[in-house]
Amino acid sequence: MTVSIRIDSLQAERTGENTPAEDVFFNVNAKIEEQKKTSSQVILSFSLLLETKPNIAKYSTSGMIFLQGNEQDISKRLEINPKTKIPQILFTVYQHVFNSIYLLSSLLDTPYPPPDLLHPMQEKIQILSENADIEATQPTVNQAAPPPQTTPTAAPEAANTPPTK
Q1: What does DSSP assign to residue 12?
Q2: Would residue 165 count as lying in a domain?
Q3: Is 103 helix (H, G, I), strand (E, B) or coil?
Q4: What is the rounded radius of gyration, in angstroms, for the C-alpha atoms of the chain?
Q5: Residue 159: helix, strand or coil by DSSP?
Q6: Residue 152 belongs to some domain of the structure
Q7: Confidence band, pLDDT 50/70/90 cuts, at residue 145
Q8: pLDDT reported for residue 118
């Protein structure tokens, strides 16, 4: 199984001032759509938007995901994690773009999201079932997109994540 991710767009914007005393949370909006499917390859487009609460920074990226392999392996990568309601492939995409977002946040002197933002840990991340924008199209099953999710994280001190700037 081969997974290739191509970033076509990557943007960061400082939208406010960083106050060290404030807890910073991240809202995540993601969209994954099937572009092409064959018996051994699936091509998906993705877009990912991360915004801080309070309003300090906004990071957005988009691109393409290329999955090559047998149908069973591809289907496994496209499955939705029952715990998070997030497609497995989105974890891979986030891992791929995290370093770039980290570099941009360093240049802008803005908070960066934790590297494990999408991985739930009860004391760290609360998964909300309303006001969300994660959409996924599962090429192997023709069904509606899962309910949207908003994923705020706790302050870095409480979450044992690297400190934000």
Answers
A1: E
A2: no
A3: helix
A4: 16
A5: helix
A6: yes
A7: very low
A8: 83
